[in-house]
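TASK: fixed-backbone design
INPUT:
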């Protein structure tokens, strides 16, 4: 009983922080949002396919970008500052249930958390959900997967550049406000919107980032490599920042299917204890360039 109370206290805290609403029935048991069925041309600088998990990776060239946001400042994502990053590759989509299952079968990954006692469910080993993003994985499990696949978790800076490009866009697709043609999310804050659940990875090509990465907003939030520090941006390195040397929580980025529009923008940060497994949190991997 004590563990349940701790879990629910934490869940309420994260819900308020991220403006999320968790369904008591879990994500994938609810009707999925449809996404954009109109053909969209995605601009990709370069791409390749991983020989391990068949993930498509897109290339992000070296150079400066704007990290953080003064206009959308939430305290821990200010000040806005220019950061230089070396070239890198990043997964075009979030890691799917089917891909994660292969890592489990190989013995390199442990199964996602089973949260059924809280009314939330994972479907990672069910064929009808194989193309949905994996959920209920903690930071350590995400890290294990990326190592198995011959990659690593992206740094927080890499994730944000992949999402915003070099022009400092608010969202992966530009500065247009979020809508259901661009991403899978809860909807407008303050309105009564139906909860959805995850959709298949890559279902929103109109929401692609400048480098052709998909689902960097919505669907599931994503673990990144960095430890979290609230004031890190005030003194962070201007070249290839790796985050604090230590900490108690890890950074999660990108919003999810139960996130309102007010926290969908690409510079928004949230911190989660690395050992927790929650509905709505998954990951993607990265690889150093060229």
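OUTPUT:
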């Amino acid at each position: 009983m004590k563990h349940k109370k701790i879990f629910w206290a934490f869940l309420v805290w994260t819900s308020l922080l991220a403006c999320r609403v968790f369904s008591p029935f879990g994500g994938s048991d609810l009707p999925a949002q449809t996404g954009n069925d109109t053909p969209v041309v995605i601009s990709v600088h370069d791409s390749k396919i991983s020989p391990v998990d068949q993930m498509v990776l897109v290339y992000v060239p070296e150079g400066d970008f704007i990290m953080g946001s003064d206009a959308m400042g939430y305290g821990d994502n200010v000040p806005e500052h220019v950061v230089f990053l070396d070239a890198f590759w990043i997964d075009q989509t979030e890691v799917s249930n089917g891909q994660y299952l292969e890592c489990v079968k190989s013995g390199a990954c442990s199964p996602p958390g089973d949260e059924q006692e809280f009314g939330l469910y994972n479907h990672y080993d069910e064929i009808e959900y194989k193309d949905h993003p994996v959920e209920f994985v903690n930071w350590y499990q995400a890290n294990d997967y990326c190592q198995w696949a011959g990659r690593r978790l992206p740094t927080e800076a890499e994730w944000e550049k992949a999402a915003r490009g070099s022009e400092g866009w608010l969202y992966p697709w530009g500065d247009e406000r979020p809508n259901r043609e661009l991403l899978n999310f809860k909807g407008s804050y303050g309105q009564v919107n139906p909860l959805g659940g995850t959709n298949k990875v890559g279902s929103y090509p109109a929401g692609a980032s400048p480098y052709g990465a998909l689902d960097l907003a919505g669907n599931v939030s994503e673990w990144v490599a960095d430890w979290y520090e609230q004031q890190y941006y005030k003194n962070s390195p201007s070249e290839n920042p790796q985050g604090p040397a230590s900490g108690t929580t890890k950074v999660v980025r990108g919003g999810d299917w139960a996130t309102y529009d007010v926290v969908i923008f690409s510079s928004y940060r949230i911190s989660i204890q690395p050992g927790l497994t929650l509905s709505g949190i998954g990951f993607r991997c990265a690889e150093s360039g060229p």
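COMMENT: The CA atoms of residues 153 and 285 lie 5 Å apart.
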